[in-house]
Amino acid sequence: MERHVHQLYRFIKQARLSLHTTHWTNRIIRATLLGPWIVNPLQCIEGLIDSLDSLDSHLINALITEGIQRPA
Length: 72
Hints:
By secondary structure, the chain is an alpha/beta fold. It has 3 helices and 3 strands, in the order αβαβαβ.
């Protein structure tokens, strides 16, 4: 619940919103990212973390993923 409240606060205040991208889109997104968004480090690739779980747990605010990485 605490993470959900912090995430909601960040959305309202537009502050430090976390975006997780795939290894292939990270450089493109990083170069064009606007506003309060922060993106995962280049070293943090999709296979090393469960980003869908992180999204559900409110650890990250948004996720860009490939079709094969989405659940059925």
